[in-house]
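2024-03-11 09:14:02 INFO worker-7 job=invfold-0412 stage=load source=structure_tokens
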């Protein structure tokens, strides 16, 4: 069985596209070969700046001959139907066979497809793959029609086995496939022939090309860290930059240079960002001081002067870049030390979202909400409001304008320069956290208060203007914001009622949206309701309290159908409920990653309060732990049996059996024992629930398994004695009520 070697050799491929392109090449070619009837034992794809490579082992020498039997129209079908069938099969009428079936006589065609040699199939598949390759961006050059990411120079396509190697012959836009390739552009110019993958890899290595991007990255990191260690330094780890640089060179040569003394006072984040973004340099820090003092660059060739000329040129360009950064830093510090008011005023002219106002409007909303959240998370309300107002001031700074990824980081430096306490300054950086599923969450109370306020404001704002995520589209990263809130709450087991803060912020958005189109009296009423939410914690109660008070004073607001106040009063609860459901969906995704079953989460969410996420998760974990035991599993079955019998009886009788069952009507020992067991369990469950020890509470419920089983084995619930029957149905209600205090067990599957 032959092996296939394919190389597509071009001008330099952007580093960010190489990994995906290698994967696409492997997928498209192997899928095409398999679809054509060939099989293979193994496949490997590689990329360098100038080539995409695919190597297949154990490829079939030819595709098998295929026989397909296809049923056509009935014998008595119109001639047009038969003609269509003949065209689709490529046969003539005398090649068809008539057969009798249960539904009548039909024409049958036997289509035989002869096997084809691998070379013929490979030529077709590679040609199709190259012409339809899914580059994010591509170009045409010369007079041809072929599109490729950069001009394609040559194609190497070789089949090899124990008998030797042969070139797969095909032509794409004048580029004929052959058995030759090139090595390094500068260090080994000229073409050479290869006859197999092993021969290809060995000759490339001699021609100063490391084919594997992983090997290039490993060499870069090894050489860089060794060089830094010899100088008593450490390379700052940057895996994304390492992968990118490995895609820029075919023969990596690591060089280390010095950063000018005049730039060493810049914040390390500025140095690292400037060097990474503009020069693709790695930062090298002094482990004793933490300062970044050197850099590592990676050349694509060895030179007679051992890189001295390359290093000198890089240092010259770096000095120019860092001079700009130093200018930004010094200019920003001057504004920061004057109080940052110029920056905060400038945010009034920066639009956050057309309908949601400016960044300055958003900051005021965040500050108001942070003041409300602060006492719940152990922060000072005024400090939280101050921190929120400062947190985004750096968005107007020159440094963040140049390097947007430094937002927050520079805010911390500038807030400290303005004389604010370190914990307030830290909020500027930490309130953006977490930025991803593996990112740290803020831990200080002030940062938690502002981070929650920031994310809740984002979610409620886009809910207020009906811009929710749909399908895979989430342009405003609302799923990430919700997951961030979930992680902040759960990481420290924080207890807060999301409903209250969602209602408050939804109302703030509605006030801002309605202000231009309604009278001052409506806005005043809505602001009164907003103040009342802080007291009552629920929008509905606050709305009724304010409107009732105004009616009592003789200033009853217009609550007629379609009035602005009534519209807002009906809309906010609906939006709040919908947004909380969105949180629950994100919570399920988050907890499933931890191994919690989706039905367990649903069961726990069905019990109020569903907006206290820490409480919901505690219930879910306790429930999953208990139902994993034999007693717990059997308890769920007994609960379902009790609930089903009770539901059927209530539907049949048209009444609810919700009254206390009386032990004096018990007729069997098992019935009496169940009464006693329920009383004992209730006495133990109540304090466990009060202490929110749901595992203990569920354990006591699981302890009911034996008496409930014994009851159902010995007792007929629907007895002829109506008094005893009612008493037993009430007893079943006690079982359902007692066992359903932590979660709705009806939601469990199985």
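2024-03-11 09:14:09 INFO worker-7 stage=emit residues=750
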């Amino acid at each position: 069985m032959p092996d296939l070697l394919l190389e597509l050799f071009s001008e330099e491929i952007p580093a960010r596209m190489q990994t995906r392109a290698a994967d696409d090449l492997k997928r498209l070619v192997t899928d095409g070969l398999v679809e054509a009837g060939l099989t293979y034992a193994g496949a490997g794809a590689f990329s360098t700046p100038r080539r995409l490579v695919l190597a297949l082992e154990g490829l079939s020498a030819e595709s098998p001959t295929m026989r397909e039997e296809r049923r056509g129209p009935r014998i008595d079908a119109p001639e047009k139907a038969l003609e269509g069938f003949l065209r689709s099969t490529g046969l003539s009428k005398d090649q068809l066979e008539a057969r009798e079936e249960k539904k009548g006589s039909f024409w049958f065609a036997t289509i035989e497809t002869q096997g084809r040699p691998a070379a013929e199939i490979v030529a077709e598949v590679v040609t199709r793959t190259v012409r339809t390759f899914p580059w994010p961006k591509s170009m045409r050059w010369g007079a041809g029609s072929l599109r490729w990411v950069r001009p394609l120079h040559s194609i190497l396509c070789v089949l090899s086995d124990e008998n030797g190697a042969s070139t797969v012959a095909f032509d794409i836009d004048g580029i004929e496939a052959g058995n030759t390739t090139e090595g390094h552009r500068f260090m080994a110019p000229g073409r050479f022939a290869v006859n197999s993958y092993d021969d290809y890899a060995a000759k490339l290595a001699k021609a100063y090309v490391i084919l594997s991007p992983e090997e290039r990255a490993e060499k870069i990191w090894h050489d860089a860290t060794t060089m830094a260690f010899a100088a008593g330094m450490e390379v700052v780890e940057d895996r994304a930059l390492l992968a990118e640089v490995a895609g820029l060179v075919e023969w990596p040569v690591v060089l280390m240079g010095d950063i000018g003394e005049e730039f060493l006072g810049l914040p390390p984040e500025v140095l690292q960002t400037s060097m990474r973004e503009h020069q693709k340099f790695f930062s090298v820090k002094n482990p004793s001081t933490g300062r970044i003092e050197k850099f590592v660059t990676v050349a694509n060739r060895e030179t007679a002067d051992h890189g001295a000329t390359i290093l000198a040129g890089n240092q010259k360009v770096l000095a120019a870049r860092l001079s700009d950064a130093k200018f930004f830093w010094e200019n920003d510090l001057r504004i920061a030390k004057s109080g940052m008011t110029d920056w905060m005023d400038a945010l009034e002219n920066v639009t956050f979202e057309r309908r949601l106002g400016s960044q300055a409007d958003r900051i005021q909303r965040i500050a108001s909400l942070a003041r409300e959240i602060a006492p719940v998370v152990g922060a000072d309300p005024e400090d939280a409001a101050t921190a929120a107002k400062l947190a985004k001031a750096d968005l107007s700074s020159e440094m963040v304008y140049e390097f947007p990824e430094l937002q927050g980081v520079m805010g911390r430096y500038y807030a400290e320069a303005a004389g604010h306490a370190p914990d307030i300054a830290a909020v500027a950086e930490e309130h953006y956290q977490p930025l991803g599923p593996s990112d740290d969450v803020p831990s200080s109370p002030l940062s938690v208060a502002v981070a929650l306020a920031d994310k809740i404001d984002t979610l409620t704002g886009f809910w207020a203007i009906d811009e929710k995520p749909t399908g895979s589209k989430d342009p405003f990263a609302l799923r990430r914001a919700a997951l961030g809130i979930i992680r902040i709450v759960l990481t420290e087991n924080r207890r807060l009622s999301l409903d209250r803060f969602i209602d408050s912020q939804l109302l703030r958005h509605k006030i801002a949206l309605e202000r231009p189109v309604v009278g001052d009296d409506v806005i005043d009423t809505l602001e009164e309701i907003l103040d009342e939410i802080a007291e009552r914690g629920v929008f509905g109660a606050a709305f009724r309290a304010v409107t009732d008070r105004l009616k009592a004073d003789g200033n009853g607001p217009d609550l007629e159908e379609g009035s602005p106040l009534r519209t807002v009063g009906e809309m906010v609860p609906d939006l709040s409920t919908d947004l909380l459901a969105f949180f629950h969906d994100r919570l399920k995704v988050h907890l499933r990653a931890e191994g919690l079953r989706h039905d367990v989460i649903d069961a726990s969410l069905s019990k109020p309060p569903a907006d206290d996420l820490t409480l919901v998760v505690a219930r879910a974990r306790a429930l999953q732990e208990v139902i994993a035991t034999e007693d717990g599993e059997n308890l769920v079955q007994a609960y379902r049996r009790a609930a089903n019998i009770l539901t059927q009886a209530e539907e049949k009788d048209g009444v609810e059996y919700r009254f206390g069952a009386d032990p004096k009507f018990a007729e069997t020992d098992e019935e009496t024992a169940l009464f006693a067991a329920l009383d004992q369990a209730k006495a133990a469950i109540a304090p466990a629930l009060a202490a929110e020890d749901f595992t203990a509470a569920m354990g006591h419920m699981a302890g009911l398994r034996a008496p409930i089983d014994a009851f159902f084995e010995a007792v007929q619930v629907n007895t002829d004695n109506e008094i005893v029957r009612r008493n037993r149905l009430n007893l079943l209600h006690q079982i359902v009520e007692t066992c359903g205090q932590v979660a709705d067990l009806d939601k469990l599957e199985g």
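2024-03-11 09:14:09 INFO worker-7 stage=report msg="The chain has a mean pLDDT of 92."
2024-03-11 09:14:10 INFO worker-7 job finished
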